[in-house]
Every structure is written in structure tokens, then in C-alpha cells.
Amino acid sequence: MADSSSIRKQCLEELNRREASVTELKAFVGLDGFVDEIIHAVDKREDATTFQRIPSLSALAERIAGAAGHSTNIELVPQKIKLGGNGPILANALGAFGVGVTYVGALGHPNLHPVFAPLANKGDVYSIAEPAHTDALEFSDGKLMLGKMTPLNDVTWDNIAKRMGRSSFQEKLRNSHLVSFVNWTMVPYLSDIWQAILDEEMLADSGQTAFFDLCDPEKRNNDDILEAMNLLGRFRKKLRVILGLNEKEALELAEIYGVTPGTADPESRCALAEALFRHLNVDLLVIHPVAYALVTSERATTWTPGPLVENPVLTTGAGDHFNAGFCLGLLLDMSPELSVQLGVTTSGFYVRTGKSPCIPDLKELLANWPTPHN
Fold first, then answer.
1. Domain that holds residue 306
2. Longest CA–CA separation in the chain, Å
């Protein structure tokens, strides 16, 4: 890791220099869609409106384990309902920067679900299915995502063709600087859609950037995961391919490829990334644990710490905001190292405020990085 203050300074300088070109960028994102319900679990209720939360996932696990052989009641208190899904959150964050966004996915059909109105106001939206639903239980040490996924079975190549049209899909795909397909795990026919895009030669020969993520592939079988990784290699014939993983996803891929996971420190995770990269046919591999992020390529591996956030306002969507910031850096021709810095800055702002940052927000955070005392 280079001096982090120096990296932040460079990132701020580059962002100042390139800011004017952000609104010229175009992104194509898909294909999922969720209505997210952010929820707190009650530990002790004091009165009708006041309660103490179950503080951690481990505490929830103890509560559930203690009910084995008996029964228990856990009260869930909704905090807010928001647009969700890796794709919509990523697209919404890109739109907040000023990037022109096209979104294709499960946002409500035949009528757009109202929760996605902010996304529709930022760009072009094509909805081909009803959204899925997530109950996101948030705790101090992580979150438990309980998903109702059945509507995503309608995200198919046939429905893209019927409800958007092949020609419109191809036009939007080819005219974007960034192409991003995310949430492979929860969109059961996404590999088939990738296959159709490749077979029907939907992509342009324009050196576009493509960002993919898996979204917790633990429930998918190894053969499906390996097939998806092979398809990413085929995209490299047309696109610069980036695979984004959180720490858990990186460890799951490591198990599949027989890579020793090592310890949780940044240097060990960099070694893990380098070993994984040798198995994958991608241009860049980026991994974002909670406190830092790293990127590896054929030339180098580097990691960058994120801003200290002792009391996050919102964590659901933090990884998607990291991805948005990272992709913005690449689209602005920043180095992978500076792009990672832009990624942790974006996610850091989001978890501190619960809002997607605009460019001035990023510049302010880069210039006034939080310390343990502020």
C-alpha cells in the first residue's frame, strides 16, 4: 500500500481535472431489481415506540439457537423501504455522479414500482419483470438479507426481446462506456442471457469497460459458477472485463479453485487475490472487505483503506456504492489504484450518510478524510 494520504491527494487532483467529463459518460446496467425493506430486530422493548436492538448477528444467532427444541418470537421493526438490488443501487449511484444511465431489469411490469422512480428520473429505464423483495436485517457486525426471489425467474432473454426489443437492447448496450451485469447468483438465467449476447454478437468493438459481480454465490453449484467465469473470459474478446467481489465471495471462489485463503489482513488478502487472478480470465479483479479494498491486474496488486465509520447509518448497498465509485474512476481513465480510492470514498460517504454522493461530496470527503477523532 502506498501512502494513503498521498493517494487521496492524487485522487482529488485527478477528479478535479476530469470532473467536467463525467456527464459525457454513459452506463448500461442490469438486470435485477429488489424492493429493500431495512429492518431492526428488537432485543428489549421499553414502550410502544422505544426499544433496544439486537446488536449483532452473533447475538441473533444465539437467540435463535436458544430456541431450538422450543420456539421464540423475534419482533422486526421496518425502518425504511428503498430501491434495492445490486443493479438498481449501482445505477442510482452512477446517476448521482451525473453519468447517463440506462437500466434494464426487474423494476415492475407492466407498471414501474414507485420505489424505482428516483432511478427513472436519472436515466432511461426498461422494466421487464416484477421486482424481488429483500428484508434486510442490519446489525453492528453485518446484515442478514432475507430474499423473496421468484420474480427474477422472469428475467430471461425472451422477455428482454419481447418487452424491450433486441434492437433497443443492442443499441443501448453498444452506446455505453460501461456495461455492467450484476447479481449473477440471484438472476437464475443470467448466464443464458450472457450466452445470447455473445452468440448474437450484441457487443461493439469499442474497448468498453464491463463490470460483473456474483453476489454471494454460495447457494449456486460449482459447475454453474465455473461456467459463469468461463463466459467472462469470452467477453474479454470485446470488452475490458472487471470482476468485483466482496470478501466472502472471494473466499468462496478460493475454495472452488483450491486457493489457500490465508488470514484476514490486507497483505494476505492481496496474496489471495493474486492467486485467484491466475485462475480467472479477467483484466482486473477487485475485492472489497469492510475496512479496505484491493485491486489486482497482470502488473500490480494494491490495497487502500476506507474512511473510518464507527456508527454507519446504512450498510445495505455499501458494496454497490464501492463498485460505482470504482467504475467511475476507470471511466475517467484513472489508474486502478486511484479507482479503488474513489470506490472506498463513495462507499464511505454512503454508509456515513445513507445517501449516494455527488461529485462535490466525493471531493469534500477526499479533502477532509475522517480520523478516529472526527
1. 4-39+83-367
2. 63
Q: Domain of 261: which CATH number?
A: 3.40.1190.20
User: Of 258, 260, 237, 244, which Cα lies nearest the Cα of 294?
Assistant: 244
Q: Is residue 214 part of a domain?
A: yes
Give the model confidence (pLDDT) of 77-133 as tens digits: 999 998 999 999 999 999 999 999 999 999 999 999 999 999 999 899 999 999 999
Calpha distance 200→40 (Å, rounded): 46
Cell numbers standing for residue 39: 429492518
* DSSP 8-class letter at 40: E
Q: Which helix (H) or strand (E) holds 212?
A: strand 209-213
User: Strand order of the sheet with strand 301-305?
Assistant: 123-127, 100-105, 26-31, 178-181, 209-213, 240-246, 284-288, 292-296, 301-305
One-letter identity of residue 32: D
Q: What would the grid cell of residue 133 be?
A: 423483495
Pairing of strands 178-181, 142-148: unpaired
Query: H helices within the chain, ranges in order?
Result: 4-18, 57-66, 86-97, 117-122, 157-163, 166-174, 190-199, 222-235, 247-257, 266-277, 318-331, 336-353, 359-367
CB atoms within 10 A of CB 127: 22
Q: How many separate domains does the chain show?
A: 1
Q: What is the DSSP letter of 6?
A: H
* Residue 119 CB partners (closer than 8 Å, separation 6+): 83, 88, 91, 92, 95, 101, 103, 107, 125
Judge whether 372 lies within some domain.
no
Tell me, yes or no, whether 359 lies in a domain.
yes
CA distance 108 to 270: 40
Is residue 72 a part of any domain in this protein? no
Q: What secondary structure does DSSP assign to 146-197, as a single string? A: EEE-GGGGG--HHHHHHHT-HHHHHHHHHT-SEEEE--TTT-TTHHHHHHHH
pLDDT tens digits for 291-337? 999 999 999 999 999 998 888 888 888 999 999 999 999 999 999 99
